[in-house]
């Protein structure tokens, strides 16, 4: 994963240093880092017991890469849509929902609960239901860009997996219920220190989320990087960057 992401970054080296290529580079660079220093938020599981495996550091980087990703999804809809309404709705709803998902995941980390992870992943499902719907309207309007087709294929593969496997897996996790008493500054400070400093080194498949966790890492850190690189290539070829 590290080497494939580094290669994809190299393929973007000739693109201009403008917003869209830089967002592509951001996403792929963060995935390269996550392949080198993988971790899992649930239980603070790490492969390497190194400060670079910090859950806090990874989450900071992932926040940047995920907002970049959903901005790119919205940008594609806005660029190809013949309808100004769809362009505005698609262009802004996806990155705004992504920001909401970041609030959920950060709250989950700082409050030390998996309950808000469910809300985060549920928001991701909503984002890609919308993304698939928006791109389907483009396809019906005769827009057959490979980026539109790729978004439809991704939705057809991701949404059943997310709804039938990933979300039920999160629901099955043993977790202490989040109560109002736990939502206080002292608990947030403890959660912050835990995210920064606590690491549990493990090679156990169960600790890494089992098959669901492995599929998630492979799809996110490897496959999606190729998709994001393709966005850079296609938009550059069409002079849309």
Structural description of this entry:
It is built from eight helices and three strands, in the order ααββαααααβα. The protein has helices spanning 2-11, 19-36, 55-80, 84-111, 115-140, 146-172, 185-197, 210-237, and strands spanning 39-40, 45-46, 200-201. The two termini are 27 Å apart. The mean pLDDT is 93. A three-stranded mixed sheet has the order 1-2-3, with no helix packed on it. The longest helix has 28 residues, at 84-111. The chain is mostly helical. A hairpin with a 4-residue loop joins strand 1 (39-40) and strand 2. 73% of the residues lie in helices and 2% in strands. Helix 2 runs antiparallel to helix 8, helix 3 (55-80) packs antiparallel against helix 4 (84-111) and helix 6 packs antiparallel against helix 8.
Number of strands: 3
How far apart are the first and last residues' alpha carbons, in Å? 27 Å
How confident overall, as mean pLDDT? 93
Helix coverage percent of residues? Answer: over 70%
Number of helices: 8
Order of helices and strands: HHEEHHHHHEH
Strand content: under 5%
Largest sheet: 3 strands, mixed
Judged by helices, strands and strand pairing, the structural class is mainly alpha
Shape: globular
Radius of gyration: 18 Å
Low-confidence stretches: none
Largest sheet, order of strands side by side? Answer: 1-2-3
């Amino acid at each position: 994963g590290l080497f494939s992401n580094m290669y994809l970054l190299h393929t973007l080296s000739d693109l201009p240093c403008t917003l869209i290529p830089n967002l592509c580079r951001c996403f792929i660079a963060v995935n390269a880092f996550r392949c080198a220093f993988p971790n899992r938020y649930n239980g603070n599981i790490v492969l390497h017991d190194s400060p670079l495996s910090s859950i806090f550091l990874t989450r900071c980087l992932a926040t940047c890469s995920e907002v970049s990703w959903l901005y790119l999804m919205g940008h594609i809809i806005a660029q190809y849509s013949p309808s100004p309404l769809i362009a505005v709705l698609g262009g802004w709803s996806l990155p705004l929902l992504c920001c909401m998902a970041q609030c959920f995941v950060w709250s989950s980390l700082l409050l030390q609960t998996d309950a808000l992870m469910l809300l985060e992943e549920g928001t991701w499902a909503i984002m890609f239901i919308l993304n698939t719907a928006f791109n389907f309207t483009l396809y019906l309007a005769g827009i057959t860009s490979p980026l539109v087709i790729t978004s439809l294929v991704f939705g057809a593969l991701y949404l059943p997996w997310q709804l039938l496997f990933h979300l039920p897996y999160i629901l099955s996790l043993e977790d202490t219920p989040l109560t109002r008493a736990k939502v206080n500054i002292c608990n947030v400070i403890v959660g912050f220190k835990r995210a920064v400093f606590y690491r549990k080194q493990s090679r156990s498949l169960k600790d890494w989320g089992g098959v669901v966790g492995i599929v998630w890492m492979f799809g996110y850190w490897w496959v999606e990087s190729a998709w994001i690189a393709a966005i850079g290539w296609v938009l550059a070829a069409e002079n849309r960057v």
